[in-house]
Design goal:
Layout: H1 12-22, H2 32-44, E1 48-51, E2 57-61, E3 73-78, E4 100-103, E5 106-109, H3 116-130, E6 139-144, H4 152-155, E7 166-169, E8 177-182, E9 184-193, E10 196-197, E11 203-211, H5 229-244, E12 247-253, E13 264-271, H6 275-292, E14 301-306, E15 313-314, H7 316-328, E16 332-336, E17 344-356, E18 359-368, H8 371-387, E19 391-398, H9 408-421, E20 426-430, H10 436-442, E21 447-450, E22 455-456, E23 464-466, H11 467-482
Parallel strand pairs: 3-6, 3-7, 7-21, 8-20
Antiparallel strand pairs: 1-2, 2-6, 4-5, 5-23, 9-18, 9-19, 10-15, 11-13, 11-14, 12-13, 12-17, 16-17, 17-18, 22-23
Helix pairs in contact: 1-3, 5-6, 5-7, 9-11
Length: 487
């Protein structure tokens, strides 16, 4: 099947909507075209369509005939997607369409993220709105903005705009699972300020690069033990600075707070008298990291190449402070849940390290389903960077979503799944951050469930969605809407 030809897949309306979404740029904080498309979609259907002050789009559809006495349902999905592409690929996420294609049982994208997270959910809600044969009570489709970076759409949702009593979030990524809880999170923004110094004589310049890592979603995939490019590069820089006098000019790794960094790059200089030892260690280090990640990240590449001399180097004090702090900063899984040992309770992702205009910016995303543990981890990270003389600011804290195993919506969905597929769905809480906790703070009485199709490797160019699972996701949605109890 050629790129973009998804319309022969079932359910047809869902895939048609998703194919159109693939042609519309929808970066976090830059979803205006996608929001305009959804707004026009609702208006063309003659449905009440609202765009709130945050940019969220709400479309309301009356109950189908004979279903007027059923409880109202909110179908919720976010419009934005994570922009990730493979190294060397020319793709402008603000202009170029996603090149989606069918590969056996999967839909993938060519060298970029696919945007099935959460584009399939958006497309499904649209398909319900345009359907003439799905049976449902009053439906409200809530399309939020900026979920992937700041969740500002959910944070700024007004408490009076929605009327439904059940919210079905479509942002989970394993078909056959019903999610009843998620982790909260907070963003750490760290800043070092350095002085640009003249390049001393007798040095040779090198570019140093870590690449080929799988990366992935910093919540969903954090338990897989994949390499963090920033931590790996920093590990090398620390040893090379201490042993061979390396001086750093430029460092740049990672680009999204909620994506495990796949690549990290530096430009540094090394004294000519230490070059042989430096290059010997580079070769040894390559073997070390390839051996350590042989199972979890077998395609890792570590490259050291002579390069043009930079215009400056960072002052040694700031360089040393930054390198030591990044080396000491917690990263990965911190704790597992006592109640559900297979679920990560607390983690952190050292996502971005970037030098520019005499500043080094370090961005981390800290997650926990326990609020006190999130605060403790924040203090831990703050301690490391404050000792190193950096400014550390925490922002965008959002609450987790506490599981309610007695949820009426859970009972309906569980029974609907068993009826359709002859087996019991798995009830889970996830470590990723969903908008449910934030929305619930504005609508505390809402009964919530999150579900979705099987999406593998979100937030990375390996992202793919299973075609058959999309069909089952749609069937469950339709069956659930049909069985929503009376008000």
């Amino acid at each position: 099947m050629k790129d973009g030809e998804l319309i022969n897949l079932n359910p047809r309306e869902l895939w048609e909507n998703f194919q159109i979404l693939c042609s519309i740029p929808r970066l976090p904080k830059k979803e205006k075209k996608a929001a305009a498309f959804v707004k026009e979609f609702g208006e063309k259907l003659g449905l009440e369509t609202i765009v709130d002050a945050a940019g969220n789009v709400i479309i309301k559809k009356p109950a189908s005939k004979g279903m007027e006495n059923r409880g109202g349902v909110i179908l919720q999905a976010h419009l934005d997607m994570v922009p990730q592409k493979n190294s060397g690929i020319e793709h402008d996420f603000e202009k170029d369409p996603i090149r989606a294609y069918v590969d056996g049982e999967w839909v993938k994208a060519r060298e970029t993220t696919l945007g099935a997270d959460n584009g399939i959910g958006v497309a499904a809600a649209m398909a319900v709105l345009q359907s003439t044969d799905v049976r449902y009570g009053p439906v409200e489709a809530l399309f939020t903005v900026d979920e992937e970076v700041g969740m500002t759409g959910a944070f700024n949702l007004k408490p009076s705009i929605l009327t439904g009593g059940i919210l079905l979030n479509t942002d989970s990524e394993m078909e056959g699972e019903l999610c009843v809880g998620c982790a909260g999170g907070v963003n750490a923004n760290i800043t070092f300020r350095y002085v640009e110094e003249k390049v001393p004589g007798g040095f040779i310049s090198y570019s140093i690069k870590v690449s080929g890592l799988k990366g992935g979603h910093s919540g969903v995939n954090i338990n897989l033990g994949r390499g963090n490019a920033n931590k790996i590069l920093n590990r090398f820089l620390r040893h090379a600075a201490k042993k061979y006098g390396l001086r750093l000019s430029v460092i740049e790794g990672g680009n999204m707070r909620n994506a495990i960094p796949r690549e990290s790059f530096a430009v540094a200089i090394v004294p000519g008298s230490k070059i042989v030892e430096f290059l010997d260690y580079a070769r040894e280090f390559e073997k070390i990291v390839k051996n350590e990640l042989a199972v979890k990240d077998p395609c890792i590449r570590f490259e050291v190449k002579q390069s043009d001399m930079p215009d400056f180097v960072m002052d040694e004090k700031t360089q040393s402070s930054m390198i030591n702090a990044v080396y000491g900063c917690p990263n990965g899984v911190i704790a597992a849940s006592d109640d559900m040992p297979d679920v990560v309770e607390t983690s952190t992702n050292l996502a971005v390290v970037k030098s520019q205009n005499r500043e080094i910016t370090v961005l981390c995303l800290l997650r926990s389903s326990v609020e006190s543990s999130k605060e403790d981890l924040s203090n831990m990270v703050e301690s490391v960077f404050e000792l190193a003389g950096a400014d550390c600011v925490f922002e965008g804290s959002y609450p987790g979503w506490k599981a309610n195993l007695n949820s009426p919506a859970l009972r309906v969905m569980k029974e609907s799944y068993e009826k359709k597929f002859g087996k019991t769905p798995e009830i889970k809480a996830i470590h990723a951050g969903l908008e449910c906790g934030i929305i619930k703070s504005a609508y505390p009485e809402l009964d919530m469930i999150s579900f979705g199709p099987t999406i593998c490797f979100p937030h990375s160019p390996d992202e793919k969605v299973n075609i058959k699972s999309v069909g089952r996701f749609w069937e469950l949605l339709v069956e659930t809407l049909k069985n929503i109890p009376e008000k």
